Amino acid sequence: MEYKKQIEQLIVDFRTNYLSSVSIDFVIFGFHDGQLKVLLLRWKETDKWCLPGGRVRHEENLETAAYRSLQERTGLSEIFLEQFHTFGDVLRYTHFSKEETMGTLGLPQDVLDGFPGRDVSVGYYALVEFARVTPTPDLFTDECQWWDIDQIPLLLFDHNAMITLALKTLRRQLSYQPIGYNLLPEKFTMPDLQQLYETILGQTLDRRNFQKRILGYDILDRLDERKTGGAHKAPYLYRFNKEKYEKALKGEVLFVG
Amino acid sequence: MEYKKQIEQLIVDFRTNYLSSVSIDFVIFGFHDGQLKVLLLRWKETDKWCLPGGRVRHEENLETAAYRSLQERTGLSEIFLEQFHTFGDVLRYTHFSKEETMGTLGLPQDVLDGFPGRDVSVGYYALVEFARVTPTPDLFTDECQWWDIDQIPLLLFDHNAMITLALKTLRRQLSYQPIGYNLLPEKFTMPDLQQLYETILGQTLDRRNFQKRILGYDILDRLDERKTGGAHKAPYLYRFNKEKYEKALKGEVLFVG
DNA sequence: TTTTAATGCGTAGTTTCAACACAATGATAC
DNA sequence: GTATCATTGTGTTGAAACTACGCATTAAAA
């Protein structure tokens, strides 16, 4: 009963404070154990999974709304967040009717009357440091969990397509911008970084050429420390030079005929 | 009076048939006289210009809506159209208040009551063959005209920023995908194509290297004809090989470590 | 102390890219 | 009809980037 009230209040809140027809969906990439992972939510009382999302307040910028929603879901504020596509197919809604949704939640169907039947959803992808995230489910979902990128189940709505496109965009981004600042701990080794790249690209890279290329970007500071503990030769630790990193992000290398 | 009725009807139509909070804006690129041009609309009874736009019907896909709206504005159906960014800043609306808008149109302010104060706008850019376009103004605008890309005035809303980003995206697109199919007439010469590239990129290119690179893509068929009439040596005519062209569009060359 | 396997640093071969040379050609001027 | 001119078609060369691979070094384990 308490939950029902909460939901109803939430819906009233939506109606008064948020834009209708527009939603935000997140593909949140994390990196752990040499695996690229995506944060998914499990829909209340079902075994169906979907991407975390958000909505936009009436007097709120889209980007602000994205950062706010993401923080609600992960607890992180300083994150790499980038819009990659806006999805607006009506078919997005084949899996779940409005009635089903309400039925699942045990709510009368009329609470959603007047709501538009579909949203246009702005897709963002985020890169976060796995360890720092505190996944938090919302009122519509029971659970919040990391999934290996190659073991994503069939998701609700068009969320599988979203992940695919987000990954494609991320891979392309890798080719003209440095990545890693938001995915690795502060200090890391070259093999760590290479594993990250290989995982994102889905292919192996030559160790020596990779190092040359990355160092060529001039965005890393090599520390005097080495990472001990593992077997064999101890690798140097590196740290992103934030200044140079930001500079590289802005001064995007454009291909010119 | 007649016009006022039309507008009111239009607004009723919007309320019942279209998504609120979502709009579409177009940066329509054309190419003529060695100049890259953009199609702009002049707002009714003012000297202020803006981008053409559209809205999404309740049961219509976003992309479908984009194609439909674009056809209404240009008369063209088979065009290159690509989403490049979604804009959602509240500041987008600084130039024009709801009241001003209504005032300009000579309408009572209450016709827009209940309308959300702002939209999230999905930006598309289009490439069209200049000569085939029939610019058509809508009910809110008096005039529809091509503007040289480097002579765009201060536009309404955030439309200047939209053009800037659209151009940036177009230029990047040029580096990993062929372009020209929708901007040039069926038969064209290599210098024609080069001029198009130079205009889009805003820089000159080496004639010989350009030819080598383009032919290397293997998307052109050289015809037996030559373009006569001009002074000096007659250049060959080329035509895009649609099959190969489409293939090149899909099989995007991804940078790999 | 020896072995092992990963790391740090370096080199050679290849491909790609940019800069430039020169002959061919179609209209124009005479 | 012929010479001139600007432009086109094709090729070459040197530099730079990229790929593939060699080898000595080193921390932990045997």
From TrEMBL, chains A, B:
InterPro entries: NUDIX_hydrolase-like_dom_sf, NUDIX_hydrolase_dom, WH-like_DNA-bd_sf, WH_DNA-bd_sf, WHD_NrtR
Pfam family, one: NUDIX
Organism domain of life: Bacteria
Residues covered by the Nudix hydrolase domain: 21-169
CDD domains linked to this entry: NUDIX_NadM_like
Entries under Gene3D superfamilies matching the protein: Nucleoside Triphosphate Pyrophosphohydrolase (3.90.79.10), Winged helix-like DNA-binding domain superfamily/Winged helix DNA-binding domain (1.10.10.10)
SUPFAM superfamilies: Nudix, Winged helix' DNA-binding domain
Protein name as it appears in the record: ADP-ribose pyrophosphatase YjhB, NUDIX family
Organism annotation: Spirosoma fluviale
Origin organism lineage: Bacteria, Pseudomonadati, Bacteroidota, Cytophagia, Cytophagales
